């Protein structure tokens, strides 16, 4: 796992534990917790897929191979669509919180980047 993804996975595990505590202690919010968990897990899987694709892409560029690569956009979009379809079909999963969870990795990356840019200046 790359050094950039490790802190994001740590933050995700922290959020997963908080969401699971909410799941256990507050039964009224279980649908929201399930939606956020689903979106967050798909977001992490998409980040992992993107990391693998970027590593392969940069390896192809540095080795100057003729092999053409892509960044796996279609597979990541399909993963997000599957999560949304699950949220629509299963009434125990909230659609809005699933969509919010899909942006988890991007938000953590943005906050982390802002934090480190402020500390370095």
From TrEMBL:
Keywords from the named record: Cell membrane, Membrane, Transmembrane, Transmembrane helix
Membrane topology category: Multi-pass membrane protein
Localization (cell): Cell membrane
InterPro entries (UniProt xref): ATP_synth_I, ATP_synth_I_Bacilli
Signal peptide range in chain numbering: none
Primary site of residence: membrane
TM region(s), chain numbering: 7-26, 32-52, 73-90, 96-115
Keyword Signal: no
Superkingdom, natural source: Bacteria
Protein name (record): ATP synthase subunit I
UniProt source species: Paenibacillus agricola
């Amino acid at each position: 796992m790359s050094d950039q993804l490790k802190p994001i996975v740590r933050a995700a595990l922290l959020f997963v534990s908080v969401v699971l505590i909410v799941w256990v202690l507050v039964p009224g919010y279980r649908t929201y917790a399930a939606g956020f968990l689903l979106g967050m897990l798909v977001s992490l899987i998409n980040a992992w897929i993107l990391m693998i694709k970027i590593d392969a892409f940069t390896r192809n560029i540095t080795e100057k191979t003729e092999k053409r690569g892509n960044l796996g956009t279609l597979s990541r979009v399909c993963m997000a669509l599957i999560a949304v379809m699950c949220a629509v079909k299963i009434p125990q999963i909230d659609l809005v919180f699933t969509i919010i969870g899909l942006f988890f990795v991007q938000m953590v990356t943005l906050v982390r980047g802002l934090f480190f840019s402020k500390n370095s200046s």
